[in-house]
């Protein structure tokens, strides 16, 4: 998987996580809210992985 793919998947996970977190807050579901926060963290990690891959390609 390329760095751009990782960054795109990371952005998608972050967006989905934000929606999930907001839904959890609205419904009062701490479990859904926590899942959303975890998905956002996963997305941030994927984005970081993509950044690293792209920086290594440039060298």
Question: What does this protein structure show overall?
Answer:
The chain is an all-alpha fold. 92% of the residues lie in helices and 0% in strands. It has helices spanning 3-27, 30-58. It is rod-shaped, with a radius of gyration of 14 Å. The model has no long low-confidence stretch (mean pLDDT 95).
CA-atom Rg in angstroms: 14 Å
By oligomeric state, this entry counts as: single chain
- Average pLDDT number: 95
Q: Based on helices, strands and strand pairing, what is the structural class?
A: mainly alpha
Give the helices and strands as they follow along the chain: HH
What are its keywords?
mainly alpha, 59 residues, 2 helices, 92% helix
Can I get a quick summary?
The chain is mostly helical. Helix content is 92%, strand content 0%. Helix 1 runs antiparallel to helix 2 (30-58).
Summarize the SSE layout with pairings.
Layout: H1 3-27, H2 30-58
Helix pairs in contact: 1-2
């Amino acid at each position: 998987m390329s760095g751009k793919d990782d960054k795109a998947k990371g952005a998608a996970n972050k967006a989905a996580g934000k929606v999930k977190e907001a839904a959890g807050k609205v419904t009062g579901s701490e479990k859904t809210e926590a899942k959303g926060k975890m998905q956002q963290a996963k997305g941030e990690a994927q984005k970081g992985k993509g950044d690293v891959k792209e920086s290594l390609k440039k060298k």
